[in-house]
Structures are given as structure tokens and as C-alpha cells.
Amino acid sequence: MSEKAPLLHYRLTTGGDVPDTDDVKRRQSRSGRGSGKNPRKLGMVFGVVIPTLLSMFSVVIFLRIGFVVGQAGLFESIAMFLVAYLIITMTVLSVCAISTNGALDAGGAYYMISRALGPEFGGSIGIMFFFANVCGSALYILGLVEAIMSAFGVPAATNALIGAGPHQILPSGYWWSLLYGTALLFICFIVCLVGAHIYAKATFIIFIIVVTVLVSIFVSFFIMKPMEVKLHDASIHSNSTLLTGNFTGLQLQTLESNLLPDYKVDYTTGMMMNFATVFAVMFNGCTGIMAGSNMSGDLKNPSYSIPRGTLAAVVTTFITYNLLTLLAAWSCERHLLQRDYSFLGDINVWPPLVTVGIYSSTMSAAMSNLIGASRILYALSKDHLFGGVLSPAKKTSRSGNPWASVLVSWLLVQVVLFAGKLNTIAGIVTIFFLLVYAAVNLACLALEWASAPNFRPSFRCFTWHTCVMGIVGCLVMMFLINPIYASASIAFMLLLLMLIHYLGPMSNWGFISQALIFHQVRKYLLMLDVRKDHVKFWRPQVLLMVANPRSCVGLMTFINDMKKSGLYVLGHVKIGLLDELPSDPLQSSYDSWLSLVDHLNIKAFVNLTLAESVRRGVQNLLFITGFGGMRPNTLVLGFYDDCVPEDHLQGKILKSAGFGLHAASSSEDLSEERSPFFPNVRCPIETKDFQDEEYVSVIADAVKMGKNVILARDFHQFHRDSVIKSGKKMGRKGATGQYVDVWPLNLLRPDHRGYVDTCSLFLLQLASVLHDSRAWNQVRLRLFLCVESECRMQEEEEAKLRVMLKELRISAQVHKVAWDQVVALHWQKQRSSGDERVSGESERSDGTEEMAAEEDSQRKFPTNAAQLTDDYIGAVNNLIRQHGAPQPAVRFLYLPRPPADTSRYHAYLQQVDLLSQDLGPTLLIHGVTPVVTTDF
């Protein structure tokens, strides 16, 4: 029922390494994948399907099918299974989504929830998951005791009419049952201490036994003749004719009598049954769905195996349970189903076979839950979420077995055994697992609603609707089963949550609360904490500098698509000094800017500043824009060229604020009635507000401040509506406007051979973010790799890049571009420069200091601009244009870092200008911060 993941439950950890032999070997192999040894050995069947089936086929299928059908009838039994499997199917979808989003370590629900929702939810749910496994282990032990007493127990005095068989020699009674349960639990305890690996190796044998028993049960329904079966509950009947029940075989009359519910007193507990209590017992046979995801560290292909294997196991168990329910209702009288829960053994072709199946499955389930509980406790103690309270549980043996956690878990299971009956604790176990499953759905819902760019699970068959359905279904069934237990468990979880929140240490897992606050509740700015920032929740936070919005409409709408629900600020610098003006001239302009934001239907803030220069104004905006975690991390500038601006707001009227924005040619009457509007675009003969050296200085300032920089060129040619319409209309036909081209290599540094650096990863992330946006999901990414013939390093870089794209879940078409002839132009210049350098060094020996200073200045120029020729850059530009068919919607190019030598700013800008000339809408990007992660 619980997460009985064979092969892994005995090493169920979270982020830390458990120093047992198998785990150490796996982690060492994982850290050295290049050695050629693949540590992931298990496929879908042995790694996911079998563990999940063993987790779900247990005591319920052998000992409680008759109980469910006899009490609830066929119709309500099928309804119970439909409700239960609807809940677990929604949870399975969430488990598959989380488990296929990057690397997933061992730890089951605790690891997924803690690393997704943070330590507060993770720690509190981890404790609940621990108690669920403890109670689950006790439940299986009690089920096994019940099966043993049914076969070998001496009937109580009140059952003397039945008489004891020759094999019924064990004394019965509460204390005797407790003694038997204690002995069985002690065996499990010893195995967990010294022989968990033996159980792991026997998993397949246990699975074969269970399957064999199930096949014999199905066959028995068809080949066994009608018979009378002695009941295990004859104490309450005075009529001797009720001491037996009838197995009628497949008869329609029997089926009709078992269609409707007939709730009676449960003979094992003496309690009156109802829909909720029967459902609580039945649901224990539907748990264990996370056994496959717990095996992710040992799977060859987790993103393939976990979704398919888990869903296959769920479908298999659903069909099996419903077929058994139908056959039981079709062939057994209601009296037999209600008074003998072990009737499957009585009607089997070989009754001992069912007994073997019950004993093997329940014993393995009890051990698995005990092992799982101890590993969860050990993982909690390693994460230090409860300070020193759980420190003793971290003690391990020399082989790495956490014996202290096993000891504590064993003692707690022993306490639960005092409950005495399986049906007594079934409701508690069910509520605990329902609460854990609700938390898993909540974790997936939070990740989905956060819209983090790095939440890109390979499994996409889920939505926030399925998560909500799973949460609501779990909570409703919890309160239907037992509202008191449900309320108490939720209150206990909330208490643990508050304790961890206020007393627990800081963690480096990443806090989903930060991503949710950013996306959902931006007004709660003070709740955002920069200390909790994490790379997996990174998103673009853009400051777009706009000189005149009339000429930047296309760029503003494009950046709105690329921001991925991040902070988007429109910045504007007005030249002037406040000392020389009677009032702030910017206050009256805000209405126009906000109206423009409404008109363009973009989600952006506006920040205007007054400064003596553009450079100083941009510095001010970078320093002061935003609060806490909502601060720009990316600066976007228009390109510095001689392009004549175009007015894209000519004749437009902004009605959102109740006033119009008109062109200068509008009538005087209208101009008198409207609020201040944006000035006309710059004429070709007018000079710019700042020179090219100041423009490059703005880029250098942003890089020094740790901001990513994007230069947007030729976006006056960008028409968003036509691009989006073309993508939706043409679909997969490859029409013009359906591509985004990415060139991740620093083209102005041909001697730089690396594709995987911070800047290139930033390019890939932005391209993926744009592609993932709703409006651009029909547009494909094309990734161009510049390669040289017979260059081994380039082949290694290409392989590394392909692996990285797969790990980052970025779908792109990779194209190789041969550029030997282009690079040759650079190396010819290099050779000539080398000859000059040799002669220069001979002159330096005469004591000339000026030449040395010049060479040192060149070394400070990272873009190698001093040795690049216009012929080489022009050839690169031509290469880009040649491989741009069909014409892409936008290009992403690598922007080199500005030179350290300010005297080379002009040359730097000329080279960037020549590189991006006549390419259409182009983004030149320089990234300085890490933005992607392959970890969960």
C-alpha cells in the first residue's frame, strides 16, 4: 500500500549520500559518466512496473475483496474503486511531472515535496509520510497475523461449534495475536538491520509468487464446483445453518443478490460498517504509486520509464481489482463474503497457494514499509529541519545502514500493533497517505502556477486542473472517512510547518514561495527575499530603455512575450537637471506611458528618470528600479545605428485612459482636449542624444553591475501579428516566420571554441523562454553550430551541447555550419600580426615602453577586436544570412563583452554593427549570470 519500492526503500534518502555500498557505487558512477559505465541499469518493467505492482497488490487483494463486496455490493464497490483510482491517477500525473523535471534523487514524496515547496512543507509532510509508513507496516503485520490465525488459530470458546482442525494449534486472543505480531515484526527488524539487500534480491521471486496466486484465483472462479465453506464468524449465529457459506459458481442469481449494499457489523472489530469505513480499508490497496519514482536513480531512462511504468501498473491493478470484485459478486453468496474474509483460499484449486501468496506479499510489504519509514526518518535527520531533535537518528553502521532510524521506526510500529485489528488502523493509514498525496498534487500545482522557466517536465499529460482535482479528492475523502482524524492530521501538519518555518535552518533547495509570490502576488513585495533566490526559479526581469515609444512598439511587444511572467519595466531618460526647471517634467508623462501599456496589452511597469546624460540616467534606473527580489537582471537597449526611426503610433488613439494619443498632424481642436503625448520621432537630420562611446559605456556599466545586456536591432521590421498568425496557420510546414535562429558561439572571437559558457547558456534560455510562451509555441528553434573540418574539439563541444540540450529539456533543430573559409580570413591576419609582434619584441629589447603598453592594452580587449578585420566580420555576417532561409522571425547572437580599453569603444561598436548588419530583427545578447540547472 505505501511506497514499498523494492531495491530502493532500504536506501530511501533525500539530498545526502547514504554510505551503503550500492548507493556509493551509484553516486560514484553518476559523477563519472564519462567512464563508460552506465549506473542506471533498470528498465521500465523491473524498475517501475514490478515495484509499483508489489506495492499495490498486498493484503487487501487477498483478505479484503470479500469484505468490500459483501458490505458495499457490486455497484458501490466499483464506485469506490473509481473514486480511489481517480484520486491516485491525478496524483500519478503530478508524480510523473515532478519526477521527469530534471534530476530526481531518492526520497520519494518527501524529496519531491521538500525540493519543490521548500523545507516547511517538505519537513511537515515528511513526518506525515514517516508515520504513514509506520502505520502501514503495522497494518501489514496485523493482516498477516489475521491470515495466520485464520489458518492455524484455535477457535475461540464461543466458536466451539465449528471445531478445530488438525492444523489449528495456535492459541487465539488479543494478547496472543499481539505476541505473534511482535514476533513477526522482530523478524522484519532483524532483516532491516542486517539483510535488507537479501529482500531486494528476492523481489522478483515474490512478484512471481503473487502473480501465480492471482492466476490461480481467477482460474478457480471458473473451474471450481459449488461448495459449502465453513465460516470464520459463527459466534454471533445461533442457527447452525449459518455456520457455512455457499460458493455457487458463476450464477446470475448470485450476482443479482450482490448488486446493492448491505452494511453489517464487521466480525473482526464489532463495528458497524458504512461507505466511508469500507472505503478506508479498500483504499489501502490502491497506494504505493510512488514506488517507481523512488527508483529514478537506478533507471536507464527515468523520463520514459516512470510515467509509462506507473500508469501501466495503475491500469493493471485497476482492471485486476474490478475483475476480482465482479467474479466474487457473481459466484459467492453475501453471507460468505461478509463472514469469511479469507474465502479466496477456501475456494482455490489448491488452498495453500493462496496462503503462501498472503504470507509472502504481506511480509515483504511490512518489511518494505519499515525500511521506508527508517530511511525517511534518516533523511529528515540529515536535512537538520528539526535541529538536534532527530540527531540520534543519523547514526549509521560501518556499512552505512541507519540502525538508529530502524530502531526508532521498529519501536513506533510496535506501539501501533496494540491497535489489534487491521480494520481499526486502516482509516488512520488511509488519511495519512491521502494527506501525502494531496501534498504531492500541491507541489506540482505550485510549480505549474509559478511558471518557472526551468519547470519543463518531459511528462506533459497534466494541467493545474488535474492537480486541483487530486487535492480536492484527497481532502474530501479524508473528511468522509473520519473528520476527527483528518482535522487532527492537518492541524498536526500545520503545527510542524510553523515550527520548521520559525526554527528550521535555511536551505539551498530553492523556495517555491518566492516564485509564487513573484508571479501571483506582486503587491507583496516585502515577502520577496533575495537570500532565497535559486537558479531553478530564475526568470527574465527586464529593463527596456525606450527613447521614444513611437518607434519601439514592435520591440516592446516582443520583450513582453519573452519575459516569462517576470518583471518588465519600461525605462526612459529625459535629459535635463531639476535645478534648472520649475517642476518635475516627468510627472505629467506617466499617464501617457501607462495608457500606452494598456493599449499594447503588455504587463509592464514604467520608470522614468531625469538626468544630465543618458548614461547617468540608465545607471540611476539600474540602481533604483524594483524592490527586493523584483529587480531587473537584464538591460535591453535599442541598437546604435543610423536607421531612421518609424512612427508606429501614427493615427493611433489610446482610449484606455480616456484621452487620445495622436500624430502631430491631428487637428488643433483634438490637441487642445488631449493630455500630453509623446514627441514625434527623430528626423534623419537630427542628432542623437548621446555618442557611440557613451552608448558602449552604458553596456559596460550594466555588465559591471552584474546585469545581462541585450541589444535589439531592426525591430522596426518586426511585426508580431504576422509572425504569430503565420506560425498558427502554417503549423509544421516550415513557413516564413516560424523559426528563431540561435548562434551560441562568440563569432567575434573565432579562437574561442566553447559553446557552453554562461553567455551561450543565457542565449539558449532566452530562446527557450520565448518558445515556451503561449504565442510562440508554434515557432521552432534552430541552433547553428560553427564547425571546422577535422576539428576534434569542435566534435566534443557539439556532443556536449547536444547532451546539455537534452538535460535542459530544450527542443531545437541543430544545424552544423562549416566556416573554415571564414576562419581562414582571421588566421591570415593573425599570422601577419605575429610577424609584426616578433619585430616589435626585438625593438622592445632596446627599452621602448610604449610598444609594451600598446600590447598590454590589446590583451585587455576580450573580443580580440584588435586582430579582427572587416573582411572577416563581413564574411561572418554573410554566413549568417546564407543560413537564414527561410527568414527567421528573430535571431539571437552572442554579444562580446565591451573592451576594458575605453579608447576601443568606437571600434567595438563598429564591429558589432558590421556583424549584425541587414539580418532583420536581431538580439545581440551578453549574459553574465547562470540561468539554467539540470537539478530538480
Give your account of this protein's structure.
This protein is of the alpha/beta class and 936 residues long. 52% of the residues lie in helices and 7% in strands. The chain contains 32 helices and 12 strands. The strands form 2 sheets. A 10-stranded mixed beta sheet has the order 5-4-3-6-7-12-11-8-9-10, with helices on both faces. β3, α21 and β4 (568-575) form a beta-alpha-beta unit. It is elongated. Residues 1-40, 157-163, 234-241, 656-676, 838-848 and 850-863 have low confidence and may be disordered.
Question: Can I get a quick summary?
Answer:
This protein is of the alpha/beta class. It contains 32 helices and 12 strands. The relative contact order is 0.10.
